[in-house]
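User: I'm writing a short methods note and want a consistent example. For Restriction endonuclease, I'll paste the sequence; you return only the structure tokens, no commentary, since I'll be parsing the reply automatically.
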Amino acid sequence: MITKDNLKQVLENLGFKNKNENYVKTINNYTLLIDYKNQSINYPKEIKIHDKTTSNFSHPESFVVFECVHRLLEKGYKAEHLELEPKWNLGRDKKGGKADILVKDNENNPYLIIECKTTDSKNSEFIKEWNRMQEDGGQLFSYFQQEKGVKYLCLYTSDFSDKLEYKNYIIQAYDNEEYLKEKELQN
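Assistant:
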């Protein structure tokens, strides 16, 4: 699991530079900064942040969200297409739910919802949520009910021992028209 104790190693592994206890990295003109003194996670200003819950060191899941955003930027996603902690009203009682990351496409349409979870050998929130998803849909499918235009749902985790490793389950949230036509012809 990524924790406060190994975060510096993770950041060095990812190529961040230490400048007076601020770990900084710029990717495609977007700057990510970890401020150790204030225990804050600073994202590029172009990322829309709905809630600051994952912008500090309070919960280990925040480090997974940060690493995932770093990975998205490294893969070429634009910061202005990322939203952290978008909120939806869920269920009859309109209880709020927050996904960790919403990725939008070039037309600003919802494309991908990512739910980040911690993992370790003893108590993996990632495995627990994957089991919930298979039983009743879990968090991601409740968000999908509110954001039906999304193309993909992703359950994501990252871990660090000697090197950073990530794991994800990606679910396509739309029909494969070609497959359906093929099946129709067979019947």
